Amino acid sequence: GGGSNAATGAGAGGKGPIVMGFAQVGAESGWRTANTKSVQESAKAAGITLKFSDAQQKQENQIKAIRSYIQQKVDVIAFSPVVETGWDTVLLEAKRANIPVILTDRAVDSEDKTLYKTFLGSDFVAEGKKAGEWLVKDSQGKSEVNVVELQGTTGAAPAIDRKEGFAEAVKAAPQIKVIASQTGDFTRSGGKQVMEAFLKSNPKIDVVYAHNDDMGLGAIEAIEAAGKVPGKDIKIITVDAVHDGVQALADGKINYIVECSPLLGDQLMDLAKKVVAGQSVPERVVTQETTFTQEQAKAALPQRKY
Ligand code: GZL
């Protein structure tokens, strides 16, 4: 890896397999589990040797993992930055070690675009917009629509951008008001705890906008414990479309899901081979994804892969 590929025989013209160091965020959600499975399966299928680490959603653990990959002289480093800030130093170390870096899933706020070769992942602002646009349509003719928002991990690109996109879209309907917004850290337990607090302090909640299915599923538990009917008394909009979310949507407990695909593995391995071979790659690769209503969920469930 690194400057002299001879050691691993990888890279352009090398004989041995490419070695990739992957620093994963954690295992906080169904999305993350599916994403990890996709990366591991795609590496195997691509003949790429994968070194994998789980940072338990802690940035310092991801930085430690990246440093260890630099020490091991891997051929390429890929990771999903748990938050947007604080990466320039370690990415500069990788650059100095002549090890290319690929961002997957989440973005960094680095001004220096030479610190990574490409960013493969969803457009989170667009996801938030799609959620807001559905609510604008659903709110026609209503005088007041009170929304509580379950935000993703504080400082994470999907949390920042899904909030921004949603807020932008709901400007079209002034009767929609976000009366409370708090992080549930993308976990089911976080969503449940925050929703319990929201229910105690807000007499009239019409809609929950959760930045991922897992927090929406936690909110369902809190809503039912409070004796209300999720999907009817309080509507729920989420992002991801993992199996448990699509099931709840089909069961009528969630009203709309904006898909965020975790299946980035194949595209990542293809980009890695190009990057290691010194070929140019697009600066940004946006993943394709759709949206699901309750009817579409029933039809889609049988063939969902995750
Ligand atoms: C989005 C990804 C988010 C998912 C959550 O690409 O970073 O992190 O929406 C996951 O489920 O925890």
Structural notes for this entry:
The chain has 306 residues and is an alpha/beta fold. The chain is 40% helix and 19% strand. It contains ten helices and twelve strands. It has helices at residues 30-46, 59-71, 88-96, 124-138, 157-170, 188-201, 213-225, 243-250, 265-276, 294-300; strands spanning 19-24, 49-54, 76-79, 101-104, 118-121, 145-151, 176-183, 207-210, 235-240, 256-259, 284-286, 291-292. The strands form two sheets. Strands 2-1-3-4-5-11 form a six-stranded parallel β-sheet, sandwiched between helices. Strands 7-6-8-9-10-12 form a six-stranded mixed β-sheet, sandwiched between helices. Helix 8 packs across helix 10 (294-300). The longest helix has 17 residues, at 30-46. It is elongated. The two termini are 33 Å apart. Bound molecules: beta-D-galactofuranose. Beta-D-galactofuranose binds at residues 28-29, 31-32, 105-106, 121-122, 158, 186, 212, 214, 239-240, 260.
The largest β sheet comes out as: 6 strands, parallel
SS-derived structural category: alpha/beta
Helix content: 25-40%
pLDDT averaged residue by residue: 95
Please provide the count of β strands. Answer: 12
Approximate shape = elongated
